[in-house]
Amino acid sequence: MKEPLTNKQIIFLIFSYIVGYGIISLPKNIAEELGTGGWISIVIGDIIIIFSAFLFTYLAKTFNNKTIFEYSRILTGTFISYCIIFIISIYSISTATVITKLTCETIKLSFLINTPIWALTTFMLIVCFYTLLNDIHVLGRIFEIFCLVFIIFALILDIAIFSQGELTDIKPFFLLDVKGLIKTLPKIIFPFVGIELLAVIPMDFKKENKKVFRYILGILVLIGIVYILNVESSISVMGVDSIIHYEDARFASIRRIEIDALQFLKRLDSIFIVAWLLSTFGTIVLSLYMAVFLLNKLFSRINRNIIVFILIAIVFILTLIPTTMDMLRQALDYVSYLGIGILLVMPILLSIITLIKKHFKKI
Amino acid sequence: MDIINDSWIKKTKELGITTRYLNVGDTEIIILYIQQITDRNILSLNIIKPLLLCQKKAITIDKVINTIYIDDFYTDTKEKEIINYVLKGNSVIIITTEEKYIVANTLKIEKRQVQEPNIENTIKGARDAFNENYNDNLSLIRYRLKDPKLRIDELTVGKRTQTTVAVVYIKDIANSHLVGTIKDKISKIDIDGILESSYIQKFILNNSYNFFPQSGIVERSDTACANILDGKVIILVEGGNLALVVPKTFIEFFDTGDDHFDNTFISIFSKFIRILCIMISLFLTSLYVAVVSFHSDILPPQYIISLATSRATVPFNAFLEAFLMETVAEILREASVRLPKQIGPAIGIVGTIVIGQASVSAGLVSPLLVIIVSLSIMSSFATADYSITNTIRVLKFLMIIVTSVFGLFGFTMGVILITVNLCSMDSFGVSYVAPLSPLNFKALKNLFISDVHLSKKRPEYLKTKDDTRQ
């Protein structure tokens, strides 16, 4: 009676992967480049990512119940397929490493000043290891719950922050700087990196996941709304001029508000910390899951749990390499560039090959 | 019958079996029974007396059957089974000249009467709880469910105890795969003895190392019937006063029978209160540790000042303070469970004075922590099913430890660990976190509303054969 992965679970997995560490610095990044009209860039980024999601869904539909491991081999041959899997695995491990380290650094700087980074990363990676011992069905259940919790928390925070913010700070709404927009186009996509998870989720388009694209469309729109609310509410509290000086702009804006009517809950830091940790945990676990899934397929003779252990150990060792926060943020940018390649270039190329092969009736 | 000889009779005596010889005409009849588990009135008046009064020269087995006043009997020819039948409380009537023998049910067990439930208390619900008598328990179910499709499949488990285990379900509702799996797992149990339903629980669950119980316990017969009507399976064990109900999901532990009898709004309110209680019981003490040890800045200044004042004389850090208090509270709870009823209240008085009064006066713990620990203990009793309370007790300590090391970060990771454990579990193929994940609004709504008028369908996640209730 094992249940298949439902459409809802698939979209909550995508939500958990996409919405992660980035929400803490998103208001700063957006305001820095495009000021109060930054929400337009989020809309554009959302549209681009919907296109990418469409391509991944098209590939998954063409090769029903198959993942990139199988269809990349059918489309490009064994060698290139292995290269693709290798690149995705490297990308996933790098994402997990950078996000783990950045999260732990942020925690240390924000509220656990005396706790060593290695202790934080060890504990976090132990929890990730325990989670990754489960298959995608269990992950689907976990992130379905976490997502609901996160969305509720995010809404509470946004409403609370808006109630304290100034409308004048987010005006003018329509400040469209086309030049700036084009210049920052890759950065616009950064917050949406994660849709490539669709490549490793087997979907059954004949039964359970017939209407999955509608659901994906819905969740990507929701992510856009969450991001816009996140940015606008933060700017409404701090203003563009002030917010650009804070790397943890979201956290900074939350620390500035106090809702007296809530009595001992008038500070909202704790809710934010819990919600943010849930979201970053999702990104780390699911990026590692991508690597585990592909490497397990590649080395099918090795026990899956051993692969999980090795990957966690690699991530742990990589997080020990001494780095500054600036270096880490730079590393995150590089990883995001690689992510853009995987989520845009790869599906475009694979879709073109699919169309050509379909035309010549080779698949 | 070949088996009857002196050595065999001697062997039966060693087993505590009584042998009664009767001569009816020219025929010798032997009655075998165990005094302690036989209704001797029935034996004397309904079997021995009519046989002795029988005025026939030669008697056959058919004539014996027509002479004795027994409603439940059958015949058999397997000589090796005679002792087993007697050990199960039957009286075996052997006619020495015949191959066949009669097995008459004259079982009588000393038992409790049907009484009020002890662990599944109710205000409006029926109060007839299961007792240790297998037949009484089945009669309570049969009395409520007169459905011809009700099935009671009996299996024998335990090499030495030969315990009867009943798998009770409605044939055209319960998922056949579920029933098959349960029966298969029970029939594979290879153990010397089964004394209680919890034994079966350990054998049939996938992973006995999980924190959370994957099956529910039922004490009240109306709750058992409600579960059977939902499409679940009840497992009754001979000699046990608690039935098992499978599958059982985590959210169902918040549901009590009373919710179904109450006003809809009251039942929704009660469920939210129970969820809140679980949260308080699991997280409140660890949140206290987090706030005092790491994140005092998340509280407004006036609260911090009063918190600091209350802890001014406390020599321990927040972790040790909370850990010690929770341990003392657990000791009190454990002691009060074991104590005889007459001196039970004494431990409450000692606990209240020692913990509540003396420890605060001595400056060993802060008054706020006393309130938190009391609230936490009180909340843990608010769950509908007792079996989950113990899990919460253990996990509370895990939360205190991780929070004391890593603050809110540890707290969040602890919550994640518990959620992952919950999500990774199945209860006989049903997701343990259903209907929350996979999300099913209808089932979730029905579970919260608990209104039989509004719940027109059975829960989808149970994958029943017939999902329509009305």
Would you mind describing this structure in some detail?
The complex is a heterodimer of chains A (363) and B (470). Chain A contains 15 helices and no strands. Chain A is mostly helical and 363 residues long. Chain A starts with 6 loop residues before the first helix and ends with a helix. Chain B has three domains: 6-105, no CATH class; 134-248, no CATH class; 262-424, no CATH class. Chain B contains 15 helices and twelve strands. Chain B has helices at 6-14, 40-53, 61-67, 82-87, 134-144, 176-187, 197-204, 221-230, 264-293, 301-310, 318-338, 344-361, 367-380, 386-423, 441-449; strands at residues 18-24, 27-33, 73-76, 90-95, 101-105, 150-157, 163-170, 216-218, 233-237, 243-246, 426-427, 430-431. In chain B, helix 5 (134-144) crosses helix 8, helix 9 crosses helix 14 (386-423) and helix 11 packs across helix 14 (386-423). The mean pLDDT of chain B is 88. The A-B interface holds A 1-3, 6, 8-9, 107, 111-112, 115, 119-120, 123-124, 127, 130-131, 134, 138, 140-142, 144-146, 148, 258, 263-264, 266-267, 269-270, 273-274, 277-278, 281 and B 175, 177-178, 294-295, 297-300, 303, 402, 405-413, 415-417, 419-420, 423-424, 426, 428-431, 433, 436-439, 463.
What's the architecture of chain A in CATH terms? Up-down Bundle
Most strands sheet of chain A? none
Question: What is the CA-CA span between the terminal residues of chain A?
Answer: 33 Å
Q: Total helix count of chain A?
A: 15
Number of structural units classed as domains of chain A: 1
Give a count of the beta strands of chain B, DSSP E runs of length 2 or more: 12
- Unreliable stretches of chain B (pLDDT < 50, length at least 5) are none
The global form of chain A is globular
Note the quaternary state here.
heterodimer
Report the CATH C-level class of chain A: Mainly Alpha
Helices and strands of chain B: which structural class? Answer: alpha+beta
* CATH fold topology of chain A: Amino acid/polyamine transporter I
How much of the sequence lies in strands of chain A comes to: under 5%
Radius of gyration of chain B: 29 Å
Strand segment tally of chain A:
0
Largest sheet of chain B: 5 strands, antiparallel
Shape label of chain B: elongated
One letter per element, helices H and strands E, the order of chain B comes to: HEEHHEHEEHEEHHEHEEHHHHHHEEH
- Helix-strand string of chain A: HHHHHHHHHHHHHHH
